[in-house]
Amino acid sequence: MSLLSFVKSLLISSELDEQINRIRKPIGTLGYDPWGYNNEAVKFGFSLVKPIYEKYFRTEAHGVDHIPAEGPVLIIGNHSGQLPIDGILVGYALASRKKNPRIPRAMIERFFPTVPWLGNLLNEVGAVLGDPVNCARMLANNEAIIVFPEGVRGSGKLYRDRYKLQRFGVGFMHLAMKYNAAVVPVGVVGCEETIPAIANIKPLAKALGVPYAPVALPIVLPAKVHLNFGPPMYFEGGDLSDAEIDKRVEKVKTQINRLIEKGLTERKRLF
Amino acid sequence: MKAHTSQPPKPNVLVTGAAGALTQQVIERLRKTCNLVAVDARKRVELGDDIPSYCIDFNKRTFEDLFRRYKFDSVIHLGRIRSSQLSRMRRYNANVLGTQKLLDLSQKYGVRRVVVLSTYHVYGAMAYNPALINESAPLKSAGLSADLIDSVELESLASIYLWRYPELNISVLRPCNIVGPSVRNTMGRLLASPLAPVMAGFSPMMQFIHIDDMADAIVLASQKPTRGIFNVAPSDWVAYQRALDLCGCTRIPIPSIPPVLPRLILRTMGLKRFPAYLMDFFKYPVVIDGRAFEKEFGFTPKRSLKEIFRFYKDNKKPL
């Protein structure tokens, strides 16, 4: 235990400690929430991601203040780059903003909970199995949730398809309407270049039980990342047909495309 | 001083599973206000002069005599044989057929309240479980382990009777891990032992309820005839390995992948407190939502997780 507190004192400044403690979370007496979120783990995660966010990817976030300070929020973005680096960067951008920081939750691929150590680690820093029931319960808890409705279709796509939005799942729209959640679109530019993949070996992925097996360099390239958050969108509830839901999802998609365009024009060079 | 003139008569209550620690707590709480009769299929328990106590197999004819003689108003069925006890066949006979007999007799002799104790194990542990599972979630455990089938069947039997005979006012309680002094179930033994196995790399979220709180919950349930199925769990959560830490247990990691490996190891070891068929409960979370019960019966657990774990830490000797 003393070793742990020593490492903690090296990694975590008292300022950060206080900052995370100030962000109120619906947690139990031992610092956990029902999904495994843990305040102490978040402090470690935060201080480890800081250099990656600031130094390695030199992330520039615009409009992060568009995310409401409280209430249920769905942060919807384009997914890319094989590994969920985009989710981590978006999460850090919100957790580190000057005014009203929030610790967002992220919906993750169903494959992660079966991986030893990694699954628990992700849970502790706020990632949650991407099940609609989980998402609904967390919105009811007034959480801000990062969702990539493209799922593995987005993260597993090849370099030649970069910045082309794949088919969006519509589950997030149903939930946003039901829980009156703000939908904040975010365009992520740069993550496509972190792990460019030229092919996907499907039989290998199937044999390993993983969503995809990309042919790529075994390193994460330090591409500069631009995050552009758009103003929150609100969708009134009601009994809508699938076509009408699709229309609303298209609206969000259009916003994300616009934000990606913005990021691409802002970008001077890849690295 | 004037004596009370019109006091309502004490209700006659049958309590099953009298040898268990939880049942004895329930009996302690009810003995003043009810005429209790205690039975247990395993052994006869001495409960003092005021409480008749029997050792009876529910499937035997003599069991009906109790209903004839005592005219029970309510039945508290806590005598479920845990999955770590007896063989699968005997458990099936006791839990499924025995419970059916009990419910049939309750119906025949006009019982007006039945509380059945089940377990959260019926939900089954799997990677895709959402958290805060509510009562309408499917019971997956029958498909995952043959050793938990009798628990699920007991429940479905109770549900059938719940709808077929509404006058029985059946409530099924699905508690999370019941722990605390003298609890000898799987989790109680684990927390009490100095060495506790863990699945390497997995530390699922868990919920624990103190035996005293659980006894309070059962007493509350027995006093209000609301039909239905209810989870019983406090709104507090902890990761399994952290709980072991707080209990002062030394963790023994067991290789966790591929799944055949830990199953083989656990079967070979044959540990009562860490059986192979419960392996997935130490890998994947089964977090239940107990708020419906709290709201309906006005229940608030009083003992915190810290208090529960401190007890185990301070008593790190075989109970």
Sketch the major β-sheet of chain B: 7 strands, parallel
At the fold tier of CATH, the topology name of chain A is: Glycerol-3-phosphate (1)-acyltransferase
Query: Strand percentage of chain B, roughly?
Result: 15-25%
Question: What is the CATH class name of the domain at 12-181 and 207-237 and 286-302 in chain B?
Answer: Alpha Beta
CATH superfamily of chain A: Glycerol-3-phosphate (1)-acyltransferase
Shape of chain A: globular
Strand content of chain A: 5-15%
Question: What quaternary form is this?
Answer: heterodimer
CATH topology of the domain at 12-181 and 207-237 and 286-302 in chain B: Rossmann fold
CATH architecture of the domain at 12-181 and 207-237 and 286-302 in chain B: 3-Layer(aba) Sandwich
CATH architecture call of chain A: 3-Layer(aba) Sandwich
Describe the main β-sheet of chain A briefly: 7 strands, mixed
The most extensive interface between chains reads:
A-B, 25 and 28 residues
- Read across the widest sheet of chain B, the strand sequence of neighbours is 3-2-1-4-5-6-11
Count every helix of chain B, treating DSSP H or I runs of 4 or more residues as helices: 11
Q: Can you tell me the residue ranges of chain B where pLDDT is under 50 for at least 5 consecutive residues?
A: none
Shape of chain B: globular
The DSSP helix count of chain A reads 10
Question: What's the total number of strands of chain A?
Answer: 9
Number of E-type strands of chain B: 13
Spell the H/E element sequence of chain B. EHEEHEHEHHEEHEEEHEEHEHHH
Question: What can you tell me about this protein's structure?
Answer:
The complex is a heterodimer of chains A (271) and B (319). Chain A is an alpha/beta fold and 271 residues long. Chain A has helices spanning 2-11, 14-22, 39-56, 85-95, 118-124, 132-140, 152-155, 171-178, 202-208, 242-266; strands spanning 60-62, 73-77, 105-108, 127-129, 144-147, 182-189, 197-200, 214-216, 226-229. Chain A has one domain (56-266): 3-Layer(aba) Sandwich (Glycerol-3-phosphate (1)-acyltransferase). In chain A, helix 2 (14-22) packs across helix 3 (39-56) and helix 3 (39-56) packs across helix 4. The termini of chain A are far apart. Chain B has 319 residues and is α/β, with parallel strands linked by helices. Chain B has a domain at 12-181 and 207-237 and 286-302: Rossmann fold, CATH 3.40.50.720. Chain B has a seven-stranded parallel beta sheet, sandwiched between helices. In chain B, helix 1 (21-30) packs across helix 7 (211-223) and helix 3 packs parallel to helix 5. The N and C termini of chain B lie far apart (48 Å). The interface between A and B is medium-sized, with 25 and 28 residues.
